[in-house]
Design a protein that fits this description.
The complex is a heterodimer of chains A (about 250) and B (about 270).
Chain A (H helix, E strand, L loop, with lengths): L5 E12 L2 E12 L3 E6 L5 H8 L7 E6 L2 E2 L5 H7 E4 L11 H12 L4 H14 L15 H12 L6 E5 L7 H18 L2 E5 L3 H7 L2 E6 L4 E6 L1 H7 L3 H9 L5
Parallel strand pairs in A: 3-8, 3-9, 6-7, 7-8
Antiparallel strand pairs in A: 1-2, 1-4, 4-5, 9-10
Chain B lengths: L2 H35 L6 H11 L4 H23 L8 H39 L2 H7 L4 H38 L4 H11 L2 H27 L7 H30 L6
Helix pairs in contact in B: 1-6, 2-6, 3-4, 3-6, 4-6, 4-7, 4-8, 4-9, 6-7, 6-8, 8-9
Classes of the chains: A alpha/beta (about 250), B mainly alpha (about 270).
């Protein structure tokens, strides 16, 4: 892919919180239509990078841009329409039904009439195979179903990039496999870019085009490339250890 | 850590906390103004739900406490006034006390315990479950989405609850005095004579202000919830304690201001 195809660019980013740098000098591009994995052991800073990408926390230094736009008061409204986020817990609103959760962004930001919003919301729920859960409350469905509803909500405004924070966390292998299939199918159908935080090796090998790997001990990115290439050809003992023997707790 | 460093850290933390509260009030004000100009942005359904929980669900306890307060006050006052055979003036004392001070204050304290803590717990739980982050990344400010409907519900619920608590208190007083052989008609005639529209309106205006305090403090505590095991519980406690302190402090300030302005006779 050409560099001009990059939809997210990180250039010399220091990630963390005021007074606590977790990752230093992180630079990489994420291409349009790619499934990109943020990878590493527990506490390595991959969720911190994700929070910078979705505009919850500002980067400490360096440049992070989505399609050339950096997060700021003037660009926030524009950028929030172009991204969708699925949180680790699903983060569905407990006082709303699944359909109302999916329709919320449409209600707030689209000019669709109620009937059109319902149609679109139902379409999104059907696309994640949950058409029959439309009238159920989040507390009445399983964890895997909540995550699928959250994916449907994240896609409500047809975003260019969908961020998924640990989609497999807390799910059994069968549900996790189904979720991976769903991500692949949605990418094929809608051509969206997916940025996924995970440390589940089966998921990584199944869905990822490329991955960036972070190491807490070294406080930065230690590898970038396709998971298969990283497993086969990395000289870094940390990377080899992660891919060949499982997760490294940093 | 030396004492000087500890003092520095403590001061920095307190200034930081003050700044966060000021930012919250500023954001709430901005969102309120924005909602005035774009009323369709106001989440009426959420406000109605919060209003129902704050008012109708809180009715039995508020009316019950108001009634008992009237009974207790009537007994205490009657015991003293009986010595001078003027126990009928208990009606006047009760009306003034309930309409001006006790009605709004007691109702506000009950609202703080029931509704303020519920606001803090609801919003705090949403924060722990990343729902506030979800709102932010969807471009929906949590203050507009969660705080404004709840604060408005608390402001609207307070006068209704206050009036009912005051009436229940007066009924309690009437029952006590009728047991002391004061005719009920005489009791209510005294209540009617002493109660002015200004006094009742002032009490209701104060109750709405207390509703604003309870709503703001409850929601603010919820938004500042920490993601720890006791985070939501601490937020609920902070909401109740903060509300009660604010209600007592502002009631004192209002009393002093009215005294200085020579308006105590409202």
């Amino acid at each position: 892919m050409e560099r001009s195809d990059a939809i997210i660019t990180l250039s010399h980013v220091n990630a963390g919180y005021p007074g606590a740098v977790i990752l230093r000098d992180v630079s990489f591009d994420i291409m349009r239509g790619e499934i990109f994995i943020l990878l590493g052991g527990s506490g390595c800073g991959k969720s911190t990078i994700l929070k910078h990408m979705i505009g919850l926390n500002p980067v400490l230094s360096g440049r992070l841009a989505i399609d050339g736009l950096e997060w700021g008061p003037k660009t926030r409204a524009q950028l929030t329409r172009r991204i969708g986020v699925m949180y680790q817990s699903g983060a569905l609103f407990g006082s709303m039904t699944c359909l109302e959760n999916v329709m919320l962004p449409l209600e707030e930001f689209s000019k669709l009439k109620r009937r059109e919003r319902v149609e679109r919301g139902m379409g999104l729920l059907k696309s994640v195979e949950l058409g029959d859960a439309a009238d159920k409350m989040p507390s009445e469905i399983s964890g895997g179903m909540r995550k699928r509803v959250a994916i449907a909500r994240a896609m409500a405004l047809d975003p260019e990039v969908v961020f998924l924070d640990e989609p497999s966390a807390g799910l059994d292998p069968v549900t996790s496999y189904a979720l991976d299939e769903l991500i692949l199918r949605l990418r094929a159908e809608r051509g969206m870019t997916f940025v996924v935080v995970t440390h589940e090796l089966p998921s990584i090998f199944k869905i990822a085009d490329r991955a960036a790997m972070f190491d807490k001990a070294r406080g930065g990115m230690v590898a970038l490339g396709s998971p298969k290439a990283l497993k086969a050809g990395s000289d870094d003992p940390f990377v080899r250890s992660f891919f060949n023997r499982g997760e490294v707790h940093g | 850590m030396g004492p000087l460093e500890r003092l520095g850290r403590f001061s920095a933390a307190k200034f930081g906390e003050f700044g966060v509260r000021m930012a919250f009030i500023g954001e709430t004000l901005c969102e309120t103004l924005a909602t005035v100009f774009h009323p369709r942005r106001f989440r009426l359904g959420d406000c109605a739900l919060a209003f129902e929980r704050a008012s109708f669900d809180g009715l039995p306890v508020t009316v019950g406490v108001g009634f008992l307060l009237g009974v207790i006050l009537a007994f205490q006052c009657a015991a003293a006034l009986e010595m001078f055979a003027v126990e009928v003036y208990v009606a006047d004392m009760l009306a003034i006390a309930l309409f001006r001070e006790l009605g709004p204050i007691i109702t506000a304290i009950i609202l703080a315990g029931r509704t303020g803590s519920a606001f803090a717990a609801e919003i705090g739980t949403m924060k722990v479950n990343e729902e506030l982050d979800a709102l932010t990344t969807m471009g929906l400010p949590p203050v507009r989405f969660l705080v404004l409907p709840r604060v408005m519900a608390a402001i609207l619920a307070m006068p209704i609850l206050t009036v009912l608590a005051e009436l229940a208190g007066l009924v309690g007083g009437a029952i006590v005095l009728s047991a002391m052989r004061v005719p009920t008609e005489v009791y209510w005639a005294h209540v009617e004579k002493i109660s002015t529209a200004g006094m009742i309106s002032f009490g209701l205006a104060k109750s709405m202000f207390f509703g604003l305090l309870v709503g703001l403090i409850g929601c603010s505590a919820g938004l500042r919830t920490k993601s720890t095991a006791d985070g939501v519980g601490s937020a609920a406690t902070a909401a109740v304690v903060g509300s009660i302190v604010a209600i007592a402090s502002w009631d004192g300030i209002i009393a002093v201001v009215l005294y200085v302005w020579g308006m105590m006779g409202i």
